[in-house]
Amino acid sequence: MTTATLPRSAQILTGTQRPTLAQIRLLRRISVQDVEEHRKLAAVLQDGLNGVKDDAKVRKGILAFALGHFSDAEEAVDGTDAYNQALIGLIYHELGEFADAKTHFAAASKSMPEAKIEVVRALLDGDQFDDAEKALGNVPESADRDFLTGRLNEGKNNTEAAINSYESALEKDPEHVEAAFHIGVLLDRIGDDDMAMEYYMVCADVHPHYVPGITNLGILYEERGESNAAIDCFRQVL
User: Fold this and answer.
1) Residues 27, 34: Cα–Cα separation, whole Å
2) Dist. CA 222–CA 205, nearest whole Å
3) Model confidence band, residue 1 (pLDDT cutoffs 50, 70, 90)
4) Among 45, 160, 172, 179, which is least packed, fewest CB within 10 Å?
5) 81, 97 in Cβ contact below 8 A?
6) What is the largest CA-CA distance in the chain?
7) Which of 84, 21, 37, 33 has its CA nearest to residue 57?
8) What's the pTM value of the predicted model, to 2 decimals?
């Protein structure tokens, strides 16, 4: 497989610019949630990313990370610059080692602004809410900042504030699938099934293979007695 026939999700690996952390996270999510795309990406890795010259080792490491080959990924991104530190942070985060992830993201954030977002993610996923709130002050105004603020409020069981923050994230970025999903979950919890379904449908529209959103949508259809619609969702997940 040559770079001309790379699956769409892997095109970021052949660009002149290094992939952003957000793009790498998206590639990982696609690999996890889309079986066919995972197979294509595995074929790319086996082929060796033909045609890629600049940062070839690091880019292969990114692909290995997306596929869940974390040992291979860490071996490929063993540099000490900010970008490599951030990539190692992503690996540790995916492994659930949030304290180590935060350390690497913090090191990268000194010269890599987007790593500041990842610092907050790691703190939130490690239930370090007070530290996450402090770290949020370092994140520029953006959809991601609003999303992380929503995560913080959700972690503190402030549902209304969390929903408002997620909605603000979607206003800035209508394709912020995580914000849409989290709103759906919170609305689902408080019994507003109709609006929850609307947001799960946003997830499905933005990313047709976003498994959590489609699964929850199917569950709500099932609860409403709409069996055929529920089956369609579950088949899509499968």
Assistant:
1) 10
2) 20
3) very low
4) 160
5) no
6) 55
7) 84
8) 0.86
Cα–Cα distance measured from residue 73 to residue 87, given in angstroms and rounded to the nearest whole number: 9
Between the CA of residue 124 and those of 76, 82, 99, 155, 206, what are the distances in Å? Answer: 27, 22, 11, 8, 25
What the block records as the tokens of 175 is 């394709």
Predicted confidence band at 49 (pLDDT cuts at 50, 70, 90)? low
70/60 Cα distance (integer angstroms): 12
Residue whose C-alpha is closest to residue 138's, from 168, 165, 105, 171: 105
Where residue 5 falls among pLDDT bands split at 50, 70, 90?
Answer: low
What is the average pLDDT value for the chain, to the nearest integer? 89
Amino acid at residue number 161: A
b/e burial code for range 149-169 (CB count within 10 A of at least 16 → b): bbbbbbbeeeeeebbbbbebb
- Using one digit for the tens of pLDDT, what is the confidence trace for 124-176? 999 999 999 999 999 999 999 999 999 999 999 999 999 999 999 999 999 99
Place of tokens 């540790």: 92
| Tokens standing for residue 97 | 């080692």
